[in-house]
Amino acid sequence: MTINNFVDFGPLQLLIGEWTGSKGDDRSPEPDGIEENAYRETIRFEPIREVTNAEEQRLAVLQYRQIVHRIRDNKQIHDQSGYWMWDAVNNQIIHTFCIGRGIAVVAGGSFTETEDREFTLTVAAEAGGSEWTIQQAPFLTEKAKTTGFTMSLTVKGDTLSYDQTTIVDIYNYKQFEHTDKSTLTRKL
User: Where does the THAP4-like heme-binding domain lie (predicted)?
Assistant: First the structure.
C-alpha cells in the first residue's frame, strides 16, 4: 500500500468535518415489541489521503467516527467507526465500518449529483454477499443475525441527512427492518 498526499476525494470532499444533530429517529426491535427513540449524534470525517491497493486501485479515504446518544436519558446507544472510500476510476463508493458488538460491514455503491449540487451516496451489503458483505461474531449469527444493510446519505451545503435500514433476525422477528434516519449540520 502506498500513500499519496495530493488527493481528489470526489464526492467525499463534502463530508470532511464534524457534523452534529439532534433530529435522529431510531426504530429497533425489542423482545416485547418495537422501540422508537429520538437521538442526537456527532459524526467526524477526517481525510486519510489516497491509498493504492495492489499497485492498481487508487482510493481516496476518509476515516469517521459516529457517537449516538438517546435524547430521553442521554444514554450512549451507538459507537461506530469506519471508512468512506472513493474509487474515481470505477465511479464507486465503498463504506466499511465496525460496531463494538461484533459486526463488520463492507458496503458498496455509487453517488448521484443534482444540478443544485446535492450529492447522494448510496451503499448496500448483505450477509454472505460475494462482493459487499456483512460478517458477525458467532453469538450474533445465532441470536441477532444481520442479513442486510442499505444506506442513503445526502449532503447539500452544510446539511447532511441519511436513511439506513439494517435487516435483522432477532427475537421473534425475521427480516426486521431496523431503521435510523437523521439530519445533521456541519459544525463550523
Answer: 9-186
